[in-house]
Design brief:
TGS domain-containing protein, GTP-binding, alpha/beta, three-stranded mixed β-sheet, five-stranded mixed β-sheet, 7 helices, 12 strands, nucleotide-binding, GTP binding, 24% strand, 250 residues
């Protein structure tokens, strides 16, 4: 199909400038050294690269002292990417438009390809699936706030991502206010990440999509306790602070 050819062309053009689509960094440890020669090791059998080929590639880059450790059966291209050190690994969603003007068999074939979504902007077909796919690939997490004694606010969620800042309770508190972390006593969590409702969690708890969080502050707890158990006695609390009375006359 013509669309498949266009997809391959775009992928090759992006790989030529250092972008790796829908791939993760190779599990190869590489470190340059000043002396000691080249140290080559692997934690599993290799089928694409051997020690001799690794030496040849390193010598082409004028690297004569380095440590290389393969933690997976990587290829030559993977080794070159690690040596270059400037590759970017990004997620990608291939979107095919105008499905209303092609046959159902072609649409089914495109939709079954990995990381692909078929849509029709003219007829507004499958746009909800495109939105859900983008949300899934970006790894976004929506967290709703619940003020104490009130219902959760489902109108304006805080949005986080594991790849941009993290999804812990501490990140949630910093999103609300940068000084809130200092005042947190604990948090109550409802949702997918909670084992029971509500769950008392600390700052290191990892939140999941559509969780509800209520923050309990230390100051609020202390002030509430003082107001509840406040003593109205005006007598000094310590014996040393009491005023000594004059001795009785005899």
């Amino acid at each position: 199909m013509q669309s498949e050819g266009h997809r391959q062309i775009l992928t090759r053009e992006l790989e030529a400038v250092g972008l790796r689509l829908n791939k993760r960094p190779p599990q190869i440890y590489f470190k340059r050294r000043k002396t000691g020669g080249i140290s080559f090791n692997s934690t599993l059998p290799l089928t694409h690269v051997d020690e001799k080929l690794c030496y040849q590639i390193l010598h082409e880059y004028k690297i004569h002292n380095a440590e290389v450790l393969f933690r997976e059966d990587a290829t030559v291209d993977d080794l070159i990417d690690v040596i270059e050190g400037n590759r970017k690994y990004m997620k990608c969603v291939y979107v095919y438009n105008k499905i209303d003007v092609v046959g159902i068999d072609d649409v089914d074939k495109l939709a079954r390809q990995p990381n692909s979504v078929v849509i029709s902007c003219n007829m507004k077909l499958n746009l909800d699936r495109l939105l859900a796919k983008m949300w899934e690939e970006m790894g976004l997490v929506r967290v709703y706030t619940k003020p104490q004694g009130q219902q959760p606010d489902f109108t304006d969620p805080a949005v986080f991502s594991a790849g941009r800042g993290g999804c812990m309770v501490e990140d949630f508190c910093n999103h609300i206010h940068r000084n809130l972390v200092k005042d947190v006593k604990y948090v109550l969590v409802w949702g997918k990440s909670a084992r029971h409702y509500p769950q008392h969690c600390g700052l290191s708890h990892i939140l999941q999509d559509e969780d509800v969080v209520q923050v309990v502050k230390k100051k609020e707890r202390e002030e509430g306790a003082k107001g509840r158990f406040k003593s109205h006695s005006t007598a000094p609390a310590r014996i040393s602070d009491r005023v000594k009375k004059a001795p009785l006359k005899t």
